[in-house]
Amino acid sequence: RRSASAVLPYVVAVTPEQGIPADYRLQIKVNEFQPVYAAGSTAAPLLKANFDFTLVRLPTDQIVTSFTLSK
Fold first, then answer.
1. What is the pLDDT of residues 17-68, one digit of tens each?
2. Rounded distance, CA 70 to CA 52, Å?
3. Whole-prediction pTM value?
4. What's the rounded Cα separation, in Å, for the pair 40 and 71?
C-alpha cells in the first residue's frame, strides 16, 4: 500500500481524524462511467467517463471554480 504523499508529493493529504481544518472541499460528481466495447467483446474495453469537479472555499461555501472532464 502506497501513501498519497509518495504518489503525489506536491499534494498535502490529511484525514478528518488528524484534526486539521480544511480550507477547501473538492466535490466530484460522476455523471457517466461505463465500458465501451468498440473493438469487440474479446478486446479490452475503453472507458467512457464524465465528471463534474467543484472546488468550494470553506467555511463560506463559496465556489472557487468548477469544470467538467470527459474522456
1. 888 888 899 999 999 999 999 888 789 999 999 999 999 999 999 999 999 9
2. 9
3. 0.69
4. 19
